[in-house]
Write a structure and sequence with these properties.
There is one protein chain. By secondary structure, this protein is mainly alpha-helical. It is about 75% helix and about 0% strand. The protein has eleven helices and no strands. Helix 1 packs across helix 8, helix 2 crosses helix 5 and helix 10 runs antiparallel to helix 11.
Length: about 230
């Protein structure tokens, strides 16, 4: 059996998760600092989470296609994104980002505002407060959001197949391989089951790992033996 879908999916999911973590933390911090339009911005950032993935994929296709606003610029520079692994990373990042953003934002909203206020009275800059107070206080939320984003990127299908396609050995991820195997008929159901099981195992292992880590983190903060 060709294992290229496994390696490609892991590569795309890891890159998409990394982008989602950085963008999600930054977006959550910036949105909470907005004085006006916070609800509007939040709605826009969360939209990919509630839209069907095919709608998200179609939107990305319009933006990144050769006739799209971004695609035309990239095409003029000799860069093609559609139907490449890069397109898969973009699609997975877009659908995984809202999970990271919402989780981190919830963690930030639960932080005691007096901690940041105390930091300001001590002369700390907003950047120092973010690095030394906000981020450490949101560590469990960041960990949970990271796992959720990874699991979402791992199983992404709709947006990926719209802009990355289904090219074996190049853009065929595990979720796309499942679809192809089912479309090929019952004789290939075993292959579909294998890829489906692999995604389930990887996602479940990630959730178990973060639960164990969170449990140890809480015990460590409370001074209890691990």
């Amino acid at each position: 059996m060709d294992l290229s879908p496994l390696f490609l999916t892991l590569k795309i999911a890891l890159l998409a998760t990394a982008f989602s973590v950085v963008l999600g933390i930054g977006a959550a911090w910036l949105v909470l600092r907005l004085r006006r339009g916070q609800g509007l911005v939040d709605g826009i950032l969360t939209l990919p989470m509630v839209l069907p993935p095919t709608v998200v994929g179609f939107g990305l296709l319009l933006l990144l296609g050769k006739n799209g606003p971004f695609g035309a610029v990239l095409n003029a520079l000799g860069i093609s994104i559609i139907f490449t692994p890069t397109a898969g990373v973009i699609a997975s990042t877009v659908v995984a980002f809202p999970l990271m953003y919402r989780t981190v934002r919830g963690a930030m909203e639960q932080l005691d505002p007096d901690l940041a206020a105390a930091g300001r009275t001590l002369g700390m800059s907003e950047w120092s407060i973010f690095l030394h107070i906000t981020l450490p206080g949101c560590t469990p939320g960041i960990a949970a959001g990271t796992v959720l984003a990874f699991a979402r990127a791992l199983g992404e299908f709709g947006a990926t197949v719209m802009i990355a396609g289904n090219i074996p050995g190049k853009t065929q991820t595990m979720s796309v391989a499942i679809y192809s195997a089912v479309q090929a008929g019952k004789a290939h159901y075993g292959e579909a089951a294998f890829w489906a099981g692999t995604i389930c195992v990887l996602s479940f292992a990630g959730m178990i790992a973060v639960n164990i880590w969170n449990s140890r983190y809480v015990r460590r903060k409370e001074g209890k033996p691990q």
